[in-house]
Amino acid sequence: MKIYIPNIILLLLCLISRILTSLYYVEDVENLRYALSVVDFNWALHNANYVGAPLFVAITKGAYFITGNLPVAFSMIGALGLFFTYIFYLKRSTGTSGISGRWTYSVAHIL
Fold it and tell me: 80 lies in a domain?
């Protein structure tokens, strides 16, 4: 697997943009359920009853363990989702993996 420098830069930009715009308050009930699931995952309380909850909570707990900050952990997961969305879009539109080759053409499509 090749690691391209532009892909690393894109990942860092996604992380930085999401961390700088982290929300430190609860917007709605679903955000509260996600946060409660990371702190104490309990099926009996129905904290998280969405598809893929155990996987999402496990990945978020890993990020929370690293950062020690719940809003930043959620922002990191959002940044990873955004990064993979860009990568898959670029791969589909250019036929390459990531931002190699005709990356300016692909980025122009995103903007």
Answer: yes
